[in-house]
User: What shape does this take?
Amino acid sequence: MKDKISIGIDIGGTNIEIGWVNSDGKILNQVNYKTNKFKTGKEFANFIAPIILEENKKYDNILGIGIGAPNGNFFTGSIEFAPNLGWDHVIPLTKLFEQNTGLKTKLTNDANAAAYAEMIYGNAKQMKNFIVITLGTGLGSGIIVNGKMLYGSTGFAGELGHVIINENGRQCGCGRKGCLETYVSATGIIKTTKELLTQSNSVLKKTANFEAKDIFSAALNGDKLALKAIEFTSKILGKAIADYTALFSPETVFLTGGLAKSHSLLIPSIKSAMNNNMLKIFKNTVEIIPSKLIDDNAGLLGAAAMMRQ
Amino acid sequence: MKDKISIGIDIGGTNIEIGWVNSDGKILNQVNYKTNKFKTGKEFANFIAPIILEENKKYDNILGIGIGAPNGNFFTGSIEFAPNLGWDHVIPLTKLFEQNTGLKTKLTNDANAAAYAEMIYGNAKQMKNFIVITLGTGLGSGIIVNGKMLYGSTGFAGELGHVIINENGRQCGCGRKGCLETYVSATGIIKTTKELLTQSNSVLKKTANFEAKDIFSAALNGDKLALKAIEFTSKILGKAIADYTALFSPETVFLTGGLAKSHSLLIPSIKSAMNNNMLKIFKNTVEIIPSKLIDDNAGLLGAAAMMRQ
Assistant: This one.
């Protein structure tokens, strides 16, 4: 086939997904592995390169390989200190793939990949300034400025999850206190719910170990404490978006990731808090909507999309 | 002369400066007026256009007119709701100047103009990602991302002064509470000093109405309260810069404006607070230095520089 194909690799703490993606965002073939199958990044690259080259024989025109991974640095092409992978400290992944496959390879972090997905295959095709927030275990973000990903001078810019929103607030995995992601994430909303539970009758009390999705189910069934936890979380995010607007003036903020599947519970409170805290000149300039690709392989599609940008 | 000349107009609440600037940043001719000489923006444009056309006869090659003004919007070419000027609410300034002079005209806000000045004539010539913070009555900022000014979707992005750093903090002129500029600005440091003065013996107590520069003079003479006020202010800015680094990852933050003339008193505490609050991956990646143009006509040079970008 004559359509240009790009290969996307989405590396997560548990799974690695690899897909061959056409210009419409259709995944023509997909394979996956458990991340812990590979002890090092090099072992992974050595294993996967011949599989890629074999599959590539089916296509005439391969653009290259895009990889999305935690702490993936676009500038250096290396995964740098990603504790969840259990691999080496610094993995020169694009170099390994280019050597082993002869294909042009780019690397970025997983949240930036989600933003590329929205830009190329989602609802941001015509947009020059937008933000994609991934609400998963943590809070990641990809920020597009003037039509380009914001990388800054180090390649690590755009970390909304690590803006401190409450001095002396919750302890964050980054070593500091009060980062946005300690409140707005699966981990954050579980902690909020547990704090609220100490004085309540919520059904969640009976479950020793509940997940974020249990909080949203409880809320859908009218559980007041779950609704309170969701409102608390949404308000913090809405206020933060009001602040980020004074910095980035995005036309749209897209929500994606596991938590964003419950966007109908989250977005009304986010919008209300955003509007109440927004600087006058920015009022009614920002939309908050779920990602178009929220149920799809956004990480994989975004990694592949990066080769088309 | 064959060198390309650009005209810079710096509109402030008190003065308007107009200059003809060559490619080296030399001001070949300069005129100025009191802002309140003109009742409307249109009156100003009508008055100044023939003066510009007359002076232009001296030069072969005029690039155009760059204007820096409070609330100047690069996208619309209008000054929008700038209370300090006392002019009409929306002034379509680039349109008025283009009609009256036939020259290409661009408008931006005063802090962005300072950033253009640093980019074209200052110490940021080789930089793609940097921030210029103007410390005057308020706190303004121009943010350069990927070598371009950050305007966002509205033209008003990059307002670091209006990020809320203390919920329920000081009342801000924008109608909200706790914005950075209520602490880090001439107004902010005066307020901090007055708060500290209620329980002290500082020499400043004897002065009924002191200015920010009096605080810095007192500090240079070892006044403990003045030093404390400066440290309080610097720490807040340092922490804020640590947060902004996770967003923008600038290689340098330049300080300019009246307060920044006392950079030797400010920068050590700013750096220390920044380093103590910086996310690990960004440690030692950001410089904080005074603008090269701190004592010059940075606003005027920046307005002119915009035509060379």
Q: What stands out?
A: The longest helix of chain A spans residues 224-248.
